[in-house]
Amino acid sequence: MYAAAISGTGGLPPLLKPETAAEFAQVHSHGINIVFGTPDAFALGFAATWLNYPFLSAGAFGHSGAAGSQAFADPASGLAFGYNRRRFAFPGGAAPETVPLARAVHACATRG
Questions:
Q1: From which domain of life does this come (predicted)?
Q2: Which of 32, 50, 66, 67 measures 20 to 30 Å from 83, CA to CA?
Q3: What's this model's pTM, rounded to 2 decimal places?
């Protein structure tokens, strides 16, 4: 979904115009996440992923899921990332390996 949104797939154009993808990344809501009790920020239907992954551009958007899964798109680098775990990340929320894995994938994908 994220690759199709920003880059297009199968020879088709991207599903989103650049300005639409940029709007998805803009923070529209700040507050306390009532599930985890931590400060959080959300864009339009997506998380402002770049807040949790500082190596991504400010235009990155995505969403985490149950068991520590994570998916996002970074239009500036053209990277779409998806990660699912086999086991639930206790006590919930982000899996401990997700940020280092996403950082390594981003570094490889953006290497000149």
A1: Bacteria
A2: 32
A3: 0.84
